[in-house]
């Protein structure tokens, strides 16, 4: 799963605590099931579980949103 993300790619992070989806920039894997992300467009970098991350609709459809 984690190999599908590229550095600087904008992806979706879903937090199970707030039940919100947020766009983030993927910065890379940290090990231990964590990934480093930065909220889009601005924010502080943070480590989150890789299972919270998924491709955005824009990424899946090559730049077209619905």
Question: Overview of this structure, please?
Answer:
The chain has one helix at residues 57-60, and strands at 10-15, 20-31, 34-39, 46-49, 53-55. With 66 residues, it is mainly beta. It has a five-stranded antiparallel β-sheet with strand order 4-3-2-1-5. 11% of the residues are buried.
Give a concise summary.
This protein is mainly β.
Q: Topology, please?
A:
Blueprint: E1 10-15, E2 20-31, E3 34-39, E4 46-49, E5 53-55, H1 57-60
Antiparallel strand pairs: 1-2, 1-5, 2-3, 3-4
Arithmetic mean pLDDT = 85
Distance between the termini: 24 Å
The quaternary structure here is: single chain
- E-strand count: 5
Instruction: Please state the CA-atom Rg, rounded to the nearest Å.
Output: 11 Å
Number of helices: 1
Q: What profile does the largest beta sheet have?
A: 5 strands, antiparallel
């Amino acid at each position: 799963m984690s190999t599908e993300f590229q550095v600087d790619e904008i992806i979706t992070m879903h937090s199970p605590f707030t039940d919100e989806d947020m766009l983030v920039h993927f910065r890379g894997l940290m090990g231990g099931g964590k990934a480093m992300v930065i909220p889009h467009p601005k924010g502080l970098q943070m480590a989150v579980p890789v299972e919270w991350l998924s491709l955005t609709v824009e990424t899946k459809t090559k730049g077209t949103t619905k």
